[in-house]
């Protein structure tokens, strides 16, 4: 009888939860929509060693190195099936990755990138909500699409990149 009583209580709880408002009904509607995680970017002091780890040791599919002078970085993408890792290495002394690696000698997570369906609408709304954007206009990112970065102090210590889907 103890098991039956617990099952009846669990069934009642499930029914109550399923009939209550869902989380999405409590979120105000936006003119833009947050999409999937595109990648997690990792700053690395030695790009060849990092590529080798993911390709030769872990067996991942790893892209060729691409220089992005307008961002001051070399990038390599590691395919993971459901998302990607972006390996970042400095391109020049003024690279934001160079200063990151001065503070974090062994490298580490630099930012996350989330897709949005309308980057301009996202910028407008985020500015109204007092979220600082690190550029006045979107720049073209590693995937050839417009991107913006949100100030980490406004995003709980995480540098967030938004990319047009």
From TrEMBL:
<protein>
    <recommendedName>
        <fullName>Methylmalonyl-CoA epimerase, mitochondrial</fullName>
        <ecNumber>5.1.99.1</ecNumber>
    </recommendedName>
</protein>
<dbReference type="GO" id="GO:0046872">
    <property type="term" value="F:metal ion binding"/>
</dbReference>
<dbReference type="GO" id="GO:0046491">
    <property type="term" value="P:L-methylmalonyl-CoA metabolic process"/>
</dbReference>
<keyword id="KW-0479">Metal-binding</keyword>
<dbReference type="GO" id="GO:0005739">
    <property type="term" value="C:mitochondrion"/>
</dbReference>
<keyword id="KW-0413">Isomerase</keyword>
<dbReference type="InterPro" id="IPR017515">
    <property type="entry name" value="MeMalonyl-CoA_epimerase"/>
</dbReference>
<dbReference type="InterPro" id="IPR029068">
    <property type="entry name" value="Glyas_Bleomycin-R_OHBP_Dase"/>
</dbReference>
<dbReference type="Pfam" id="PF13669">
    <property type="entry name" value="Glyoxalase_4"/>
</dbReference>
<feature type="domain" description="VOC">
    <location>
        <begin position="36"/>
        <end position="165"/>
    </location>
</feature>
<keyword id="KW-0170">Cobalt</keyword>
<comment type="function">
    <text>Methylmalonyl-CoA epimerase involved in propionyl-CoA metabolism.</text>
</comment>
<dbReference type="GO" id="GO:0004493">
    <property type="term" value="F:methylmalonyl-CoA epimerase activity"/>
</dbReference>
<comment type="similarity">
    <text>Belongs to the methylmalonyl-CoA epimerase family.</text>
</comment>
<dbReference type="InterPro" id="IPR051785">
    <property type="entry name" value="MMCE/EMCE_epimerase"/>
</dbReference>
<dbReference type="InterPro" id="IPR037523">
    <property type="entry name" value="VOC_core"/>
</dbReference>
């Amino acid at each position: 009888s103890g098991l039956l009583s617990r099952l009846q209580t669990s069934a009642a709880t499930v029914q109550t939860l399923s009939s209550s408002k869902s989380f999405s009904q409590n979120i105000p509607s936006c003119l833009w929509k947050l999409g999937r995680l595109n990648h997690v970017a990792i700053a690395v002091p030695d790009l060849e060693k990092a590529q080798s780890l993911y390709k030769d040791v872990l067996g991942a599919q790893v892209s060729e190195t691409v220089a992005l002078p307008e961002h001051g970085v070399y990038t390599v993408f590691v395919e993971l099936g459901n998302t990607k890792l972006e390996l970042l290495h400095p391109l020049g002394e003024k690279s934001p990755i160079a200063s990151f690696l001065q503070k974090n000698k062994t490298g580490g997570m630099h930012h996350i990138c989330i897709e949005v369906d309308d980057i301009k609408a996202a910028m407008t709304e985020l500015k109204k909500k007092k979220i600082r954007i690190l550029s006045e206009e979107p720049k073209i990112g590693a995937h050839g699409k417009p991107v913006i970065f949100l100030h980490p102090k406004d995003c709980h210590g995480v540098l967030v990149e938004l990319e047009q889907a």
